[in-house]
Amino acid sequence: MVGVTFPRIGVIGGGQLARMLAPAAEALGVRFSVLAETADAPATQVISEVTVGDYTDYPTLKAFAETVDVITFDHEHVPPEHLEALAAAGHAVRPGPQALIFAQDKIRMRAKMDELGLPNPAWAEITSAADAEAFGRRVGYPYILKTPRGGYDGKGVRVIESLEQATTWLDEVGQLLAEEKVDFTRELAVMVGRSPMGQTAVWPVVETWQQNGVCKEAVAPAPGLADEKAQEITEAILKVAGALEVTGVMAMEMFETAEGFLINEFAMRPHNTGHWTQDGSVTSQFEQHLRAVLDLPLGSPAARDKVSVMVNILGADHKDLYQPYLHVMAHDPAIKVHLYGKGVRPGRKVGHVNAYGRDRDLVLARARHAADFIAGVDPDPHPQMPRPGDLDAEGGERHDPDTDVSEERA
Questions:
Q1: pLDDT tens digit string along 179-201?
Q2: Residue from 237, 240, 241 nearest 205 by CA
Q3: pTM strictly above 0.85
Q4: What is each CA distance from 313 to 137, 215, 282, 321, 341, in whole angstroms?
Q5: Rounded Cα gap, residues 198 and 245, in angstroms
Q6: How far apart are CA 276 and CA 298, in angstroms?
Q7: What is the per-residue pLDDT across 100-137, written as a single tens digit (0 to 9) for each?
Q8: Which run of H or of E encompasses 97?
Q9: CB 240, CB 116: distance < 8 Å
């Protein structure tokens, strides 16, 4: 029998996203390597084919690229000129540098959204005190300042109350992106997978909630979102993905407003707001990303049940995650726990939990308790749960057999 050589994917970045790509690669029969920053990065704990090196060093990137068939990423921080050089040398870089730059550079992203006619907040590039003053006159104070590159999880973002605050930061960094402070009702996100052949698949729009600038929760589908608005958001992300020729999965975060929605940021990789898909969707964002960058047929993004929830485990003062993790598994066997192998520090994302079912209040309460109990924030091992609103004739919640949890109100 003639053997078939499956392609090898190389992921730049050894963080938790690369770690969660590994099971999807194994299931697809794809060989998987990572270029990690350190020997103990989250991905190195579960992946055997590891290169430790500096992703900002082009010779290191080039040497790694020579060992794989396709290069992809678990972050957007690789210098664009290095990616362009790799692509020019014939390496398959997905997403390509011509698309990734719009996730790397927020000023270029804003300009592109204006060009595409998509809903942006008011914005301006700030390179002088005069720019900062003019923007303050235009939109009023407070407004938002961001570093154009490198910010994430609330880092590189400040609420500006005065011209003095703006110019003090500008003197430190030289260039900033100013945005109006949006009066929004809630935050939303949507994810799409797109392959080089142009096939696309969009997951349901989710509602997200931020805690101190870090995504804490995602609920799919977004409760109470009108079908017309969900369709408009879906059409917007498909327009972006097509116009930028995105390959892989892409997240689009938005502010919902009384008038509609405004685009906040993009990520061209698996994203926190899509973690619910690991257990709540027929095809997870991680599998879809690999399918897309390999130009395989995409999988179904359909949800497995009426509602799916992801709640992040944010580090607190409690260092031992293992003992509460055991309790959560025993207390609620249908909860899915995903830990990242990171050291604990306050506010750091060290894992997340997923749950799905038919009653949103109950599913969300279960996921919140599991995440906060593991983090040590919620000390109650047996909390009261909401009574299900969706009851069958016998007075019990309608669950599929594989999601029924008899212990959930123990």
A1: 999 999 999 999 999 999 999 99
A2: 237
A3: yes
A4: 41, 10, 24, 10, 12
A5: 8
A6: 18
A7: 999 999 999 999 999 999 999 999 999 999 999 999 99
A8: helix 97-104
A9: yes
